[in-house]
Write a structure and sequence with these properties.
By secondary structure, this protein is mainly β. It folds into four domains: 332 residues, 6 Propeller (Neuraminidase), CATH 2.120.10; 124 residues, Sandwich (Jelly Rolls), CATH 2.60.120; 125 residues, no CATH class; 120 residues, Jelly Rolls, CATH 2.60.120. Helices cover 0% and strands 49% of the residues. The chain is elongated and about 100 Å long.
C-alpha cells in the first residue's frame, strides 16, 4: 500500500499506516450524508460533511496551518449527530502525531479523547476511529513507530487495537487485538473484523467477539475492512500488485468476502485503466448495502501520488466511477443515513380494464376548475364513483391506471401523483417537463382511503390531463396479471413486425394490432397471449413523425366504428422519438387500435404482460418510494451509467417487497443524458448475452424523461436497467408490485 499521502504536506518524519474502516449504516434521524477528508489550497486537510441529495457541504473540522494542525480519518456516529476524527499535529519532538477528537456535526464542542505519548525515538499515533453501533465507544488503531538506533537500522512498526468511551475516559486494550490494524464492528456490535498485520500494511482478515473469543480467520488478506449494513459481507482493501521498482506505488483494489468466511471477490472494475497504476481504498458501504464508496487515486510517471477523488462501485462489481472530485484531494469517504424504508403495501387486487376515459382536464374544466395548476399546490381528484363505459369506479377500488399528461408548462417542473392522504409528499416523481413541453406518462396511482389522488407540480403553472384506463379491486371477479419477458411485437419500420409491410402510419389509416394468440416478435420468436386476455401492457414508441401529432391507443371497436376517443397516449413533435407505457383493454378479434392524429409516424410496441381471468397475479399498491438513484447511491453505485452498462436493481425480497413478487411497477427516469440513447428494463439474466430488442426510454442529449415500466424480476429478485449510449443517471420509483 502506501504511506498516508495526506500527511506528507507537513513533512512528517515518520511512516504512518493510515486507513478508514467504515461503520455499517444504521437508522439515522438525518439525511444520507458523507464525511470525508478534503485538501485545502494551502495543502492541509479539513473534515467536510456532505448532504448526498442536496449537494450542500459544510466544514466540520478545519485545519490550522499556522500551528501545523490538520484532520483526517472522519466517521459519523449512528445518529449522525457527532463526528470522530484524527487530529494530527507536531509534538514537542517535531513528529506528526495523531490523537482522537469528537465534535458535534456543526463543528461545536470539540473534545479530545486521546493524547498519545511519544518520545524522541518512539512516535505513537491513534487513528482509524470507528463508532460502536450504540454510539458509546470508539474503536481505534494505535500505531507505534520506533526509530532504529542508527541510520542503518530500519524503523519498526507495531499496531494494536483499543477502545475509548465516546464521552471520554480510560483507554482499554481489545483482547486478541495486540497485532490488529484497522477494524470495524458488525451491525449488532458484538463482533469486530480487523486485519492482523503485525506491523505490516496488510494481513489476514480476522473476525472475533469483543471479548477476544471466537477468533476466526476469514480467508483473504487485506486491510481497511468494512462490515455491510445487513451483516452478510465485508468489504476490504487488497494489494494486487506491488511496485516493481520497490517504491510505494502499489496497486490496490476493493474486494468483498462473506462475513462467514470464504474466498474473496476482487472488484476488478475498481482497478487501473489504460496501464496507469492506481489505488482504490477506504471502502464504505452505502446505507442500503447495494454499493460501496471508496477513495481512488493514481500515480504519476515518477510514482508520486496524484490528488484523489471519491468513487463508487456496485457490490456486484459491474460498474464503477467517480462520484465526487476535483483538482484538490478528496478522500476517505464515510456514509451515514437512514436505513432504507420499507414499502407501505395496500390490499392485493385484480384489474378491471375500461375503454379510456378522460377524468381530468384543467384546460376544459373536466374534473377540476378550468384553470392552470399553480406550483406546489396539490390538485385533488376524487376517482371512486366516476362513471365509465364499464360502470362507475367502485367503492373498494385500491388503485387506478391513469395516463397523465402535463402541458402548457411555464418553467421546469416535475409532477407527482400520490394518494391524497399520504402522510408526507413522496420524493418520487412521475413526469419531468420543461417550458413549452407536452409530456405524458402512465401512472399506476394508489388511492387514498376515501378514493382520491393528488397531482402536484413542483414549478411554474401547468395544465394537467388524466385519462382512466382501469382500476384495481380486491374482488376475484376481475383479471389477474401475467408478466412476460419484454418482446417487440410491432415495428412499422423495415423490416416490419406486427403489420403486413413496412411503412409509417398515416393519419387516416390506424393500425389494428393483434395482441392475443401466437404473436411473432422482432427476434424471430413467438410470444403467446391467451384468447381470454382482457388487457395488455405495451411500451409504445413513436419515431420519425413528419409533423406534430398525438397517438391514441384503444380497443379495436367491435362495430367497425372509425370514431376515435378523446384521449391520447403519446404527444410528440416532428422528428421526436417518444415512448409511453400503455395498459389497454383488448378489443374485437383480440386486437388494439393505434391511431396517429396527423402526418406520418413509425410505431413500435413491446409487450410486457397481460391481464386475464386465468392469470394469478394480484397488484399490491404502495405509496411511491424511491428504489434507485445513481446520483446519490440508492439501489446502485453513485456514478453515471455509461454506454452498455446497467444497474441491477434489487426489488423482490427487499424493503418489504416479498421474494415471490411476480413483477414490479417502476417509474424510470433518466437525467444528465450526454448523447442520444435508449434505456431498457428487463429481468436480470442468469447468463450473459445480448440485451433484448426493446426499449423503455428514448433520449436525446440534455433531456430528463420518465416512463413507467412493468418488469419481471430475474436472478436474485433483480431487474436490469441498461443504458445503450453515452452516459446518464437513472432514477427508479416503485409504485407497486404483483403477487
Amino acid at each position: 500500500m502506501h504511506t498516508a499521502r495526506r500527511l506528507v504536506t507537513l513533512a512528517s518524519t515518520v511512516v504512518v499506516l493510515a486507513g478508514l474502516p467504515a461503520l455499517p449504516a444504521h437508522a439515522s434521524a438525518t439525511a444520507n450524508e458523507m464525511v470525508y477528508t478534503a485538501e485545502t489550497t494551502n495543502g492541509t486537510t479539513d473534515i467536510v460533511l456532505l448532504d448526498l441529495e442536496s449537494g450542500a457541504t459544510r466544514n466540520v473540522l478545519q485545519s490550522d496551518p499556522a500551528n501545523n494542525v490538520l484532520f483526517d480519518d472522519a466517521e459519523l456516529s449512528r445518529q449522525g449527530d457527532r463526528v470522530v476524527a484524527v487530529r494530527y499535529a507536531l509534538n514537542s519532538f517535531n513528529i506528526l502525531t495523531g490523537s482522537l477528537v469528537v465534535v458535534n456535526r456543526d463543528g461545536t464542542n470539540a473534545q479530545t479523547l486521546t493524547t498519545p505519548q511519544s518520545t524522541q525515538t518512539t512516535d505513537v499515533s491513534h487513528q482509524n476511529p470507528v463508532w460502536s453501533p450504540d454510539g458509546s465507544t470508539i474503536l481505534f488503531t494505535r500505531v507505534t513507530v520506533t526509530q532504529g538506533a542508527t541510520d542503518a537500522d530500519p524503523s519498526t512498526i507495531a499496531t494494536s487495537l483499543h477502545t475509548v468511551p465516546a464521552a471520554g475516559g480510560a483507554i482499554t486494550d481489545v483482547p486478541g487485538g495486540q497485532t490488529g490494524f484497522t477494524a470495524d464492528y458488525d451491525p449488532s456490535g458484538t463482533k469486530i473484523v480487523f486485519a492482523d498485520t503485525d506491523g505490516k500494511d496488510v494481513g489476514p482478515l480476522v473476525v472475533m467477539n469483543l471479548d477476544g473469543t471466537g477468533r476466526t480467520p476469514l480467508g483473504p488478506e487485506g486491510a481497511l475492512p468494512a462490515w455491510s449494513p445487513d451483516g452478510t459481507t465485508i468489504a476490504y482493501d487488497v494489494v494486487t500488485q506491488r511496485d516493481p521498482a520497490g517504491g510505494n506505488a502499489d496497486i490496490a483494489l476493493i474486494a468483498t468476502v462473506p462475513a462467514a468466511g470464504g474466498a474473496g471477490t476482487v472488484l476488478t472494475v475498481t482497478g487501473p485503466s489504460g496501464g496507469q497504476r492506481t489505488v482504490a481504498e477506504y471502502p464504505a458501504w452505502a446505507p442500503d448495502g447495494e454499493s460501496i464508496f471508496y477513495d481512488f487515486y493514481a500515480y504519476d510517471g515518477s510514482g508520486n501520488e496524484l490528488p484523489g477523488d471519491l468513487w463508487a462501485v456496485d457490490t456486484s462489481g459491474t460498474r464503477a466511477g467517480k462520484f465526487r472530485g476535483g483538482a484538490l484531494d478528496e478522500a476517505q469517504p464515510f456514509v451515514q443515513g437512514p436505513a432504507p424504508s420499507s414499502v407501505v403495501s395496500g390490499t392485493p387486487s385484480r384489474f378491471k380494464p375500461v375503454p379510456p376515459k378522460r377524468i381530468l382536464d384543467t384546460r376544459e374544466g373536466v374534473g377540476a376548475p378550468m384553470a392552470k395548476v399553480p406550483a406546489k399546490t396539490p390538485l385533488v381528484v376524487t376517482v371512486r364513483g366516476l362513471s365509465t363505459d364499464a360502470g362507475p369506479v367502485p367503492a373498494d377500488a385500491t388503485a387506478v391506471i391513469l395516463n397523465v399528461t402535463v402541458t402548457n408548462v411555464t418553467s421546469p417542473t416535475d409532477v407527482r401523483v400520490y394518494p391524497s392522504d399520504a402522510a408526507t409528499l413522496p420524493g418520487a416523481s412521475n413526469i419531468n417537463a420543461v417550458r413549452g413541453q407536452t409530456v405524458p406518462n402512465l401512472v399506476t396511482a394508489t388511492l387514498s382511503a376515501d378514493g382520491r389522488v393528488s397531482l402536484l407540480s413542483s414549478g411554474g403553472t401547468v395544465d394537467l390531463i388524466a385519462d382512466l384506463a382501469g382500476w384495481y379491486t380486491p374482488t376475484t371477479a376481475d383479471s389477474g396479471f401475467t408478466s412476460l419477458d419484454p418482446r417487440r411485437i410491432l415495428d412499422t419500420r423495415s423490416p416490419s413486425v406486427g403489420v403486413p409491410g413496412p411503412g409509417r402510419v398515416q393519419a387516416a389509416a390506424p393500425i389494428d394490432l393483434q395482441v392475443t394468440g401466437a404473436l411473432p416478435t422482432s427476434d424471430g420468436d413467438v410470444v403467446n397471449v391467451p384468447a381470454d386476455a382482457t388487457a395488455v401492457v405495451l411500451n409504445v414508441t413513436a419515431t420519425g413523425a413528419s409533423s406534430n401529432t398525438d397517438v391514441r391507443i384503444y380497443p379495436t371497436p367491435a362495430d367497425g366504428s372509425t370514431a376515435r376517443p378523446l384521449v391520447s397516449n403519446l404527444n410528440l413533435r416532428a422528428g421526436e422519438t417518444t415512448p409511453n407505457l400503455v395498459t389497454v383493454a383488448v378489443g374485437a378479434g383480440g386486437k388494439v387500435r393505434l391511431a396517429n392524429a396527423a402526418g406520418q409516424v413509425n410505431l413500435l410496441a413491446d409487450i410486457a404482460g397481460y391481464y386475464s381471468a386465468s392469470s394469478a397475479g394480484r397488484y399490491v399498491p404502495v405509496v411511491p418510494l424511491r428504489f434507485l438513484d445513481t446520483r446519490v447511491g440508492i439501489g446502485s453505485a453513485a456514478t453515471t451509467v455509461d454506454a452498455g452498462k446497467y444497474a441491477d436493481l434489487k426489488i423482490a425480497g427487499t424493503r418489504g417487497v416479498p421474494p415471490d413478487a411476480l413483477a414490479a411497477v417502476l417509474n424510470i427516469t433518466a437525467t444528465a443524458v450526454t448523447s442520444g440513447t435508449d434505456v431498457r428494463a428487463y429481468p436480470k439474466p442468469t447468463t450473459t448475452g445480448a440485451p433484448p430488442t426493446v426499449s423503455n426510454l428514448n433520449l436525446t442529449r440534455g433531456v430528463t424523461r420518465a416512463n413507467l415500466a412493468i418488469v419481471k424480476p430475474g436472478d436474485d429478485g433483480r431487474v436490469r436497467v441498461r443504458n445503450e449510449g453515452g452516459s446518464l443517471h437513472l432514477i427508479g420509483d416503485l409504485a407497486g408490485y404483483f403477487l
